[in-house]
Specification:
It contains eleven helices and 14 strands. It has about 350 residues and is of the alpha/beta class. It folds into two domains: about 5-205 and about 310-330, Aldolase class I (TIM Barrel, Alpha-Beta Barrel); about 225-300, no CATH class. It has an eight-stranded parallel beta sheet. The protein has a three-stranded antiparallel beta sheet with strand order 7-11-10, with no helix packed on it. Strands 13-12-14 form a three-stranded antiparallel beta sheet, with no helix packed on it.
C-alpha cells in the first residue's frame, strides 16, 4: 500500500491521508478500528449515543486497535457530558460540527487530544483557526449527510487552505476514490474526509436495503434538502431520493406542518424506538419497517461506488489509486516539459 507524507499524516503518525467521516449512527467501533488499523484515521459518531454505553463503545475501539482514532460531536446540543466521557477514554481527536468550538478547545487540549471543526466557508474556517483548532474539515456541498455550506468542494478547499495555513485542511464532499483523494491533495488539502464510500464497508451498520440503494445509485440520485428535519430543524442535508421525498414533491413540496404523512411512524430503529416520517435517523442494520421511507444519506460521489468491501481494503484501494494518479500526473508534466524543450 502507498504511504503518504502530509501535515495530516504527520499530525497523527499515520500512513494514509484519509479520515473516515463519522456517518452518524451508521459508524461502529469495528469500522473506526478497521480504518485506523489500515493506516488511515477512524472516527466514531457519538452525539446520539447513550452516555452509559459510550465508554464501552470507545473501549471496544481501543481493544481492536492501538492506532489513533477520533470521535465526532455535533454542537447543536450541549456536548459536555459526551465530551467528558470521550476525553476520559483517551481519544486522539474530537471533531466538532455545526457550532462554535471555542468553549471546548482548551479543555480538549488539556486532556491531550486534538480538535477539528467542519466548516462550509473560508470565513468560518478563519474563526475556527483563531480559536486554536488543530485541523479544519472543509465540507463541500457535494457531501452526504448534514451539510454546513453551499459551496462546492473544488471551490471551497483552496479558499479554506489559503485562509488558515499552516493549519492542516481535510477536504470533504464527493471524494470516494483515489482520483478524488489525488485531486484534493492537489488543491492543497492535507487529506480527505470520506463518508459515503464507507457506507459500503462491511463494518458499517447500514441496513441491507440502504446498502442496495447506495450501490445502485448514480450521481444524480441525491438531493440537497431540509426535508428530514424531525429532531433537528433547519439542518439541510444530502440524501438519496426516496419514497418520502417523492410523495412530498408530488404534493407540491408543502411546508412543515402540511407535509403528507407527517407524524406517521414508518418503522423502528435498532433499539426498537419509533422512527417518524421525516426523521433524520438513517436505517441501521437492525432497523425495521418501511426502510425506503427513511432518510438514506449519501454524497454525490455515490455513483462511483458499487461494491461492499472490508474497510481496510477500501483504504488500501483508495491510497494505491491516488498514488498512481499522482504518478501519472507527474509523468504528464515531465512529458510536456520534454516535448516543449525539443520543439524549441
Amino acid at each position: 500500500m502507498a504511504a503518504f507524507d502530509t501535515p495530516f499524516t504527520r499530525l497523527f503518525g499515520i500512513d494514509v491521508p484519509i479520515a473516515q467521516a463519522p456517518i452518524g449512527g451508521l459508524s461502529t467501533p469495528a469500522l473506526a478500528a478497521a480504518v485506523s488499523n489500515a493506516g488511515a484515521f477512524g472516527t466514531l459518531s457519538v452525539t446520539w449515543r447513550d452516555p452509559e454505553r459510550l465508554p464501552h463503545l470507545i473501549a471496544d475501539i481501543h481493544r481492536q486497535t492501538d492506532r489513533p482514532f477520533g470521535v465526532n460531536i455535533v454542537l447543536e446540543w450541549p456536548p459536555d457530558e459526551l465530551l467528558a466521557i470521550c476525553l476520559d477514554a483517551g481519544v486522539s481527536l474530537v471533531s466538532f460540527f455545526w457550532g462554535d468550538p471555542a468553549p471546548y478547545v482548551e479543555r480538549v487540549h488539556a486532556a491531550g487530544a486534538l480538535v477539528s471543526l467542519t466548516v462550509g466557508s473560508s470565513e468560518e474556517a478563519r474563526r475556527a483557526a483563531d480559536t486554536g483548532v488543530d485541523l479544519i474539515v472543509a465540507q463541500g456541498w457535494e457531501a452526504g449527510g448534514h451539510v454546513r455550506g453551499r459551496v462546492s468542494t473544488l471551490a471551497l478547499v483552496p479558499r479554506v487552505v489559503d485562509a488558515v495555513t499552516p493549519v492542516p485542511v481535510l477536504a470533504a464532499g464527493g471524494i470516494v476514490d483515489g482520483r478524488g483523494l489525488a485531486a484534493v491533495l492537489s488543491l492543497g488539502a492535507a487529506g480527505a474526509w470520506m463518508g459515503t464510500r464507507f457506507l459500503l464497508s462491511q463494518e458499517a451498520s447500514v441496513h441491507p436495503h440502504y446498502r442496495q440503494r447506495v450501490a445502485a445509485a448514480g450521481e444524480t440520485d441525491t438531493v440537497y434538502t431540509g426535508l428530514f428535519d424531525e429532531g433537528w430543524p433547519d439542518s439541510p442535508m444530502r440524501a438519496l431520493r426516496n419514497r418520502t421525498f417523492a410523495s412530498w414533491e408530488a404534493a407540491g413540496s408543502p411546508a412543515f406542518g402540511r407535509r403528507p404523512g407527517e407524524g406517521e411512524i414508518v418503522g423502528h430503529n435498532e433499539l426498537g424506538e419509533p422512527v417518524p416520517r421525516y426523521s433524520g435517523s438513517a436505517p441501521t442494520e437492525g432497523a425495521t419497517g418501511d426502510i425506503e421511507a427513511m432518510v438514506m444519506y449519501a454524497g454525490q460521489g455515490v455513483g462511483l461506488i458499487d461494491r461492499i468491501q472490508p474497510a481496510g481494503e477500501i483504504v488500501r484501494e483508495v491510497a494505491d489509486e491516488a498514488a498512481r494518479v499522482l504518478d501519472r500526473t507527474r509523468s504528464l508534466i515531465r512529458s510536456q516539459v520534454t516535448a516543449g524543450a525539443a520543439a524549441s
